[in-house]
Amino acid sequence: MDQTLDPDAQHRIYQLDGRYVTDLPGFHLAFGEVVNGPGGYYGAGYFWFWECFKGGAGAVPPFTVVWNEWQVPAARMRYPYHPAGGSPSDCFTMMVDNLREVGVEVVLP
Fold it and tell me: Does CATH place domain 3-107 in 3.30.370.10?
């Protein structure tokens, strides 16, 4: 788990390595390990992931995620269908937007 404390913002900064995040299950696994250490859990699916932001599963916003190598998931997490059915889905953009909505600062260096 690579994290630091930003003395100015008084919240945690987590470093997410995007090289191996190529799908939604991989994202959930990587995010859980970044926030809660090796084998860490932070939701195993869409619903449970967002429930974790309410507390009881580790970090609660506000915090910062620096998503290194974000270009890999940005290219791979686009699907010709929505996982729940319907129109095409850009899951990378959806995850970034949703993280920001719940108070997570997402940095894409």
Answer: yes
